[in-house]
Amino acid sequence: MGFLSKLFSKSSEKFMARGDELLADQRFFEARGQYEDGLQFHLSKGGEDSDSIAAAFASKIAESNTALAGLNINEAEFAIGRGATEKAIEHLELALTQTADRALRLKAEKLLSDLEEEIGDNQGAGDEPAH
Predict the structure, then answer these.
(1) Of 108, 118, 101, 87, nearest to 59 (Cα)?
(2) How many angstroms separate the Cα of 88 from the Cα of each of 51, 68, 94, 103, 112?
(3) What pLDDT, in 10s, does the model give residues 106-126?
(4) How many CB atoms lie within 10 A of CB 84?
(5) pTM, full prediction
(6) What is the Cα–Cα distance from 110 to 51, expressed in whole angstroms?
(7) What pLDDT is stored for residue 9 in this prediction?
(8) Which of 110, 31, 102 is nearest to 76 (CA)?
């Protein structure tokens, strides 16, 4: 029975290890979930928000979010190429909420600005001048 209880017992280390496996497999959303669950588990067992284990989980959550933001920017670029402007805007806005990475944020902001400018130009070109 000791083997089974050890096999199924939870620990912060197991959440971290599983998250790391998922991150390595580029399963960023699932990895983030493992890290978030691990952080909650750690805090529920008396850990502090400011301790090194919580900081490690927070760092991994941020890393997962940055990877997700990169994917959303790639999806936005693909949508732009297909002419799916609204979908591109959704992906870019989501990317902006997912990361604090300066380079990714600047890229998303630039693409979003370009799209909004293009939309404004297209709307302006379709308007008839008032007589």
Answers:
(1) 101
(2) 39, 15, 10, 18, 8
(3) 999 999 999 988 877 776 655
(4) 15
(5) 0.80
(6) 37
(7) 56
(8) 110
Nearest to 69 by CA among 32, 35, 40, 38: 32
- Residue percentage of the chain with pLDDT more than 90: 77
Q: How far is CA 19 from CA 7, 52, 101, in A?
A: 17, 17, 20
H helices then E strands: how many in the chain?
Answer: 6, 0
For 49-87, what is each residue's pLDDT tens digit? 889 999 999 999 999 999 999 999 999 999 999 999 999
Q: Show the tokens assigned to 41.
A: 């588990």
| Calpha distance 22→39 (Å, rounded) | 16
Share of the chain above pLDDT 70, in %: 85
Tell me the C-alpha to C-alpha distance, in Å, between residue 46 and each of 52, 88, 102, 107: 13, 43, 34, 40
- The C-alpha atoms of residue 22 and residue 9 are separated, in whole angstroms, by 20
Q: Is residue 83 within 8 Å of residue 64, measured between CB atoms?
A: no
